[in-house]
Amino acid sequence: MIVSPTRANLIGSADDWFASKGYSRNIVMSVPSFAAAPACIASTDCIAFLPSRILPNPLVRPIQLDDSPPSFDVIAAWHLRSNQDPLHKWILSLLQQEFPAQQSANQ
């Protein structure tokens, strides 16, 4: 299973990581969000890499690995016309409060 809201080809850095270990993935399902993954995992024999914030969850069981695939950055991006939108400003302020250390100099 893979979590991919937009990628059409479903190929990514995890594939390089698997290849470096002599393995390849067999993607049988794609879900649009990490929140959707636990229910799908619980009803199949699929496995997935999920963020630790999903745990604890009675639908999934963590497996400790000796090595992990590469991490990735999550970014917030928007069109300049949204800079003056009150709702956009409010959501951005919530993100800045929650993640102050990760703020970009390009705000």
Automatic annotation (TrEMBL):
One of its GO terms (molecular function) is DNA binding. SUPFAM superfamilies: Periplasmic binding protein-like II. One of its GO terms (biological process) is regulation of DNA-templated transcription. The keyword Hydrolase does not apply. It holds the Pfam family LysR_substrate. Keywords: DNA-binding, Transcription, Transcription regulation. Residues 7-99 form the LysR substrate-binding domain. InterPro entries: LysR-type_TF, LysR_subst-bd. The keyword Zinc does not apply. It comes from the Bacteria. Belongs to the LysR transcriptional regulatory family. This is LysR substrate-binding domain-containing protein. It comes from Salmonella enterica (Salmonella choleraesuis). The lineage of its organism: Bacteria, Pseudomonadati, Pseudomonadota, Gammaproteobacteria, Enterobacterales.
